[in-house]
Write a structure and sequence with these properties.
Elements (H helix, E strand, L loop, with lengths): L19 H17 L1 H11 L5 E6 L1 E3 L8 E3 H12 L3 E2 L2 H9 L8 E8 L2 H14 L3 E5 L1 H4 L5 H12 L6 H11 L5 H12 L3 H14 L12 H9 L3 E4 L12 H19 L5 E3 L10 H9 L4 E7 L11 E5 L5 H8 L5 H6 L5
């Protein structure tokens, strides 16, 4: 893969759409671009040249009500997104999109795909009813250990560090946590700390979290997992179930045998529970440096036909199906969603604006 642009932590364990400053700035820019007609002109210019694309949207959690935390979106906003997308693209499944991208022939229109990472209960309770009512097939990339009852390590770390702000830590443990994550006095500090934790060997990270959890019991998670029973019902009604490893590690940090174990165990667990072997994969975290040629070769041997990154952008026929680009989506306005589709926050922009979209 190409050299990595700046990467940032996310509510769903990938890269967050934007930090708060850039989210405000991007909302302002996208609103101005929409009102001035720039977004529409960019779209029209691309279509006049016959340059049609496949846009793969990356969601994480959908909530039925309450605040839209970073990385989450309300059910009604999600519905508005789907209806807005339908005015600009044809909504298809990821498998259908992969079939289109495998061919060398140019596309005759723009296509959009809806994907979700991790496997939170919100994808069933809030997202699935909307998908069903709007007639849209989505793809859910499942972290199988999470569905089986384990914590998503980044969610556990976030909750433990928040709890540690309110309780004194034993001196040796406090020193270990400071060395691993830096300060954790604000939510932004914690998000930066999660990025550092991602780069630790998983065994060292998990051991530290175990001690931190014992010292500062965290509050319950706000993002519980979906169950296998619910996943089976979703799959029976057209939702594609893809693979997102067992424990959500940064795969490139693992030796080849550990990468293979994470991928094959997750594939086989999904096959056991759903009855269909997954052929679609999403790299945990998913930036350019988070997977390697070794990872791709393991996926090919395991029977996967395509894999999604978190590299921001769109896809053309003939692209590398194991480096599919996605557009990270949170609680975006329609103007910001349009700006993302227009390419205003693609990877090239991110590389020039650290911390941006």
């Amino acid at each position: 893969p190409p050299g990595p642009p700046p990467a940032f932590p996310a509510a769903g364990g990938g890269r967050m759409s934007m930090n708060p400053f850039w989210r405000r700035a991007a909302s302002l820019v996208s609103g101005m671009a929409s009102r001035s007609g720039i977004t529409e002109r960019l779209l029209e210019r691309r279509r006049l040249s016959g340059d049609y694309r496949v846009f793969i949207l990356e969601y994480h959690d959908v909530v039925s009500g309450g605040a839209e935390r970073e990385g989450t979106i309300s059910r009604e906003r999600f519905r508005r997104h789907l209806r807005f997308l339908r005015t600009r693209c044809r909504l298809v499944s990821l498998s259908e999109a992969v079939g289109l991208l495998r061919e060398s022939a140019p596309l005759a229109e723009d296509f959009a795909v809806v994907t979700f990472d991790d496997g939170t209960l919100g994808t069933h309770d809030a997202a699935w009813p909307v998908l069903r009512e709007e007639g849209v097939r989505g793809t859910l990339f499942v972290t199988t250990g999470f569905v089986d009852g384990a914590d998503l390590w980044f969610d556990l770390a976030r909750r433990c560090l928040a709890a540690a702000r309110r309780a004194p830590l034993p001196r040796p443990l406090k020193g270990e946590v400071l060395a691993a994550v830096g300060k954790w006095s604000t939510d932004r500090d914690i998000e930066k700390g999660l990025e550092r934790l991602k780069r630790l060997p998983p065994e060292k990270r998990d051991a530290l979290l175990l001690r931190l959890r014992a010292a500062c019991p965290p509050p319950p998670t706000s993002m519980p997992p979906v169950s296998w029973d619910r996943l089976r019902r979703m799959h029976a009604e057209g939702i594609e179930i893809g693979c997102h490893t067992v424990s959500h590690p940064v795969l490139s940090l693992l030796p080849p045998e550990r990468q293979e174990e994470e991928i094959l165990r997750a594939r086989d667990r999904i096959t056991e529970e759903i009855g269909v072997t997954p052929t679609l994969f999403a790299y945990p975290n998913g930036a350019a440096g988070d997977f390697s040629e070794t990872t791709v070769e393991i996926l090919r041997r395991a029977g996967f036909v395509a894999a999604c990154t978190t590299l921001r952008g769109s896809n053309r026929p003939g692209c590398d199906l194991f480096q599919l680009k996605r557009i990270g989506i949170g609680a975006d306005s329609e103007a910001l969603l349009a700006a993302r589709l227009a390419g205003l926050f693609d990877e090239a922009v991110r590389a020039r604006l650290p911390g941006a979209a």
